[in-house]
Design brief:
The protein has three helices and three strands. With 112 residues, it is α+β, with helices and mostly antiparallel strands.
Length: 112
């Protein structure tokens, strides 16, 4: 196994309801993240990826989740007004520009 990969196992769900709903093989990759000093376990059906690719994919996915969390907290985006990629893009860019302008003007104003 590559460095930081603790295990890479393939199995199947054996509980009746789970195996009925998902009959395909599943894979569990356990990975040690040196930066965070913690273990992660990823469950996937991606059999064609290396264990490191699985870990990297989930790490990147988590960054997307953190970005949307930041959007909700700082830009107050509770829902998207449109459902096309362009509509979401325009709304996000507009909110980011507005946020940057607020921060900029707050820095210009004297505190107190």
């Amino acid at each position: 196994l590559p460095e930081n990969v603790l295990s890479d196992a393939i199995g199947e769900l054996t509980v009746y309801k789970s195996s009925k709903d998902y009959p395909s093989l599943i894979r569990k990759v356990c990975y040690w993240d040196k930066e965070q000093k913690r273990k992660f376990a990823f469950v996937t059906n991606a059999m064609d990826l290396s264990p490191l690719q699985v870990a990297e994919l989930y790490k990147n996915r988590w960054q997307v989740e953190l970005f949307f969390k930041w959007l909700k907290q700082h830009l107050k985006i509770k829902q998207f007004w449109g459902d096309t990629e362009n509509a979401v893009r325009i709304q996000v860019y507009s909110a980011i520009i507005a946020y940057c302008l607020v921060v900029f003007f707050c820095l210009l104003l004297p505190s107190g």
